């Protein structure tokens, strides 16, 4: 089996997990804008590609799939998901399985306001949210909304542009700052059709933060859930975490997974505050918190590879090592040089 990981970035550990699941008779191909991306160093072949919004991007990825005889493709970037899935038929035509959810699922997760509408339908708690600055100010005046608040992009990724405001003056400054960052940054393409409603203002939830890895099979049925308490964050990614035995959160994860019907892993952010759970975000891909599930007994790559081959998977080998914390640490690897990349 030959697997392609696009927007490979820093997730070298994920490629290694898949290599362990596949054994020696398969190949891991990584694609990224930068040859120095750490994940490129552990791939069997590393290919530099244009940015995801380039007019040449899809044709470039399709050519890689043909040339490298790719069986399945994984995307590790939120911004790329809607672009790939919109061209799914082209990949199907050449025999490539996109291990990516359908357009409706991706839209529900990528558009953070549609995530809230999803929560409303399923009667899941979520932070009070406004899309208009005037409405948020009015709600604060009427005391139906309280400071501090979180100001963030509606179509966001990797915690880019998130600000916290503790006063109305800070709220106004933060709102305009986030708007400016969206208009000038990498989130512009995803937000340009609704720039007047591209910023969200949410109440700040204080409490315990959890990350859920919800694994669905290729029919969209939930088959495994791992609940981690986040002990520390770093650059918008889980840095320290511990698997917890939380049957009520697993039940919530089952509720989310079976109703959303995603494919593969769903990375969920949930806060527990005053005995209630609040869903903040859903990311239909492997997130930065997955390694904590993996080391605590999950092996999602093995299950997914088995499904790609058309086999069932025995989850008897999955275990759950509760209450033993893990932490990421910086390590140095030799990245590939410019002349070590493959052109396409």
The figure for the number of domains is 3
Computed Rg: 20 Å
Order of helices and strands: EHEHEHEHHEHHEHEEHHEEEEHEEHHE
Structural class, by secondary structure, is: alpha/beta
Shape: globular
3D architecture notes:
34% of the residues lie in helices and 25% in strands. By secondary structure, it is of the alpha/beta class. Strand 2, helix 2 and strand 3 (45-48) form a beta-alpha-beta unit. It folds into 3 domains: 2-100 and 331-340, Rossmann fold, CATH 3.40.50; 128-203, ATP-grasp fold, A domain (Dna Ligase, domain 1, 2-Layer Sandwich), CATH 3.30.1490; 206-327, 2-Layer Sandwich (D-amino Acid Aminotransferase, Chain A, domain 1), CATH 3.30.470. The mean pLDDT is 95.
Descriptors for this entry?
single chain; 344 residues; alpha/beta; Rossmann fold; Dna Ligase, domain 1; 3 domains; 6-stranded antiparallel sheet; globular
Fold topology:
Blueprint: E1 2-6, H1 12-22, E2 27-32, H2 38-42, E3 45-48, H3 57-67, E4 72-75, H4 81-85, H5 88-93, E5 97-98, H6 103-110, H7 112-122, E6 129-130, H8 133-141, E7 149-153, E8 163-165, H9 168-184, H10 188-191, E9 199-203, E10 208-216, E11 222-234, E12 237-243, H11 247-260, E13 264-273, E14 276-283, H12 290-295, H13 300-308, E15 326-327
Parallel strand pairs: 1-2, 1-4, 2-3, 4-5
Antiparallel strand pairs: 6-9, 7-8, 7-9, 10-11, 10-13, 11-12, 12-15, 13-14
Helix pairs in contact: 6-7
